[in-house]
């Protein structure tokens, strides 16, 4: 037990190497992660020892770099999220702003994009488009636009692809509750990301699509044993009773999300 390599020994050796200038990081494990728009993103996975050293450096360096960032910068900053960035777009548009700047650190000069939002744009998985406010016109006789955002077509397709994989006909032998248990984390996570926008219509489309896929799976499961009218019982309420998470009714305003 005395020779067991544990946390105390690892931290002691790391501290010694850092102070003496002998520390050298080990080669990171390289994993290629698929990107939503196609292609792959290289991801380096460091050892536990190197991860501790990185986190220690982050604690010291992060406040120094944070002091130089502008308030409009949101990418990879502490206590800042994509939802806050999207809300900044909405508020900024109401004040007259119509440009979004996106930087790709890995390929900065090739990935820099300046996009104008007057005609609509896709950003952070959402589609943004200006909408005329009929209420302001009727009540105040003034022309006013607000920034409408909903899940983009690409985001909808990625979700449908995930649902299709988990409701494939080859899973017809599984208990429907197990299928639903695999779907729920995906639906819940996707819904939590998009629920602060104008996504009510898209959420209903997703719910209807999921129920349609689950009904198809049940039909495949019953096969020739399907009784007359049995499929009529497989409604959304029936699947919800078996644990299905629904997106409709989960929309929240940004300040209350």
DSSP helical segment count? 9
Uncertain ranges? none
Distance between the termini: 50 Å
The Rg value, from CA coordinates, equals 25 Å
- Secondary structure: helix percent: 40-55%
* Strand residue percentage: 5-15%
Tell how many strands the DSSP assignment holds: 7
Q: How would a crystallographer describe the biggest sheet? A: 3 strands, antiparallel
- Order of secondary-structure elements: HEEHHEHEEEHEHHHH
Global shape: flat
Q: What average pLDDT do the residues reach?
A: 84
Strand order of the largest sheet: 5-6-7
Description:
The protein has 257 residues and is an alpha+beta fold. Helix content is 46%, strand content 14%. The strands form three sheets. A three-stranded antiparallel sheet has the order 5-6-7. Strands 1-2 form a two-stranded antiparallel sheet. A two-stranded antiparallel sheet has the order 3-4. Strand 5 (121-123) and strand 6 (126-132) form a beta hairpin. Helix 6 (153-166) runs antiparallel to helix 7 and helix 6 packs parallel to helix 8.
Topology:
Blueprint: H1 7-20, E1 29-34, E2 40-45, H2 48-66, H3 82-94, E3 99-102, H4 108-111, E4 113-116, E5 121-123, E6 126-132, H5 134-140, E7 145-151, H6 153-166, H7 176-194, H8 200-222, H9 236-241
Antiparallel strand pairs: 1-2, 3-4, 5-6, 6-7
């Amino acid at each position: 037990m005395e020779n067991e390599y544990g946390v105390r020994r690892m931290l002691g050796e790391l501290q010694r190497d850092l102070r003496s200038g002998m520390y050298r990081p080990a080669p990171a494990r390289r994993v290629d992660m698929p990107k939503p728009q196609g292609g792959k993103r290289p991801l380096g996975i460091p050892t536990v020892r190197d991860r501790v050293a990185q986190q220690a450096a982050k604690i010291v360096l992060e406040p120094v770099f944070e002091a130089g960032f502008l308030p409009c910068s949101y990418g990879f900053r502490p206590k800042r999220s994509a939802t806050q960035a999207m809300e900044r777009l909405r508020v900024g548009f109401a004040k007259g702003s119509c440009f979004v700047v996106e930087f790709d650190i890995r390929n900065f000069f090739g990935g820099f994009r300046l996009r104008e939002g007057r005609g609509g744009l896709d950003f952070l998985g959402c589609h943004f488009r200006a909408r005329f406010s009929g209420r302001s016109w009727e009540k105040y006789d003034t022309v006013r636009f607000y920034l409408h955002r909903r899940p983009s077509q690409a985001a909808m397709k990625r979700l449908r692809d995930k649902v299709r994989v988990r409701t494939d006909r080859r899973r017809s032998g599984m208990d429907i509750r197990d299928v639903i248990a695999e779907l729920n984390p995906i639906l819940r996570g996707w819904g939590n990301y998009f629920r602060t926008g104008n996504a009510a219509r898209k959420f209903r489309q997703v719910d209807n699509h999921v129920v349609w896929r689950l009904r198809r799976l049940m039909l495949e499961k019953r096969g020739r044993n399907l009784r007359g009218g049995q499929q009529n019982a497989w409604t959304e309420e029936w699947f919800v009773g078996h644990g299905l998470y629904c997106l409709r009714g989960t929309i929240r305003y940004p300040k209350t999300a």
